[in-house]
Design a protein that fits this description.
Blueprint lengths: L2 H41 L4 H16 L2 H11 L9 H26 L3 H9 L4 H31 L11 H12 L2 H30 L6
Length: 219
């Protein structure tokens, strides 16, 4: 079968895998962002034990391969009596991993807000929690958008790793077609092209969103 015909025939399978890849990335981003905010708040807490716990978590997750983390969640947790299906196991591993990176982006953005913002809020009678929620948080999120967007782009590519636990995302879908056609080159190239298109679209959205959030230039 010539490559063009092969790709046309394989398109439904690859499209299904692509949709699952997007679903994986979005779910992992949502759960990861929630965990990242919690970790960032722990990291700036006055409680030294919370600070240390956040630092240890970030160090472990950033210092070990994502593939190992996926194996620990899917193959390791059953030894503790916790068995997960491939899809939730993959989402959990990806969320836990990306949370470590995004938490540092969020923590840095929060610390990047001028101290005067905190003092002004306190002088108005706002509590620390209210200051974070209404004053510092929105500004920090604006600053963190580029880093968070980059994390999502990386996450799109990292979803390919969950293929090792039989999740039929884009890469796994291509591998299944290859197993029956014995033509790896065009299918791997097609999968790579899809990843590239997804990342390119996200980069365009990121640039547009950054322009929208950009502060007015002084003249």
């Amino acid at each position: 079968m010539n490559p063009s015909a092969l790709l046309i025939q394989s398109m439904p399978v690859l499209l299904t895998g692509t949709l699952l890849t997007i679903k994986f990335a979005l779910l992992s981003m949502v759960f990861g962002l929630a965990a990242a905010v919690a970790l960032a708040l722990m990291g700036i807490s006055a409680n030294r034990w919370l600070v240390r716990a956040a630092r240890v978590y970030v160090s472990v997750m950033r210092g070990t391969p994502l593939l190992v983390q996926i194996f620990v969640v899917y193959y390791g947790l059953p030894s503790l009596g916790i068995s997960l299906e491939p899809t939730p196991a993959g989402v959990l591993a990806l969320s836990a991993n990306v949370a470590a990176y995004m938490s540092e982006s969020m923590r840095g953005a929060i610390l990047g807000i001028a101290q005067g913002q905190w003092l002004a809020s306190y002088s108005l009678g706002l509590t620390r929690t209210q200051t974070l929620r209404y004053v510092v948080g929105p500004q920090a999120l604006r600053l963190a958008v580029p880093s968070l967007s980059n994390s999502l782009i990386s996450l799109i590519k990292d979803t390919s790793l969950v293929s090792v636990i039989t999740v039929t995302e884009l890469l796994r879908s291509a591998q299944e077609v290859i197993a029956s056609t014995y033509q790896p080159l065009p299918l791997y190239l097609a999968a790579g092209a899809v990843y590239w298109v997804l990342c390119t679209v996200l980069e365009a959205v990121q640039r547009a969103y950054e322009r929208k959030l950009a502060l007015p230039q002084k003249h």
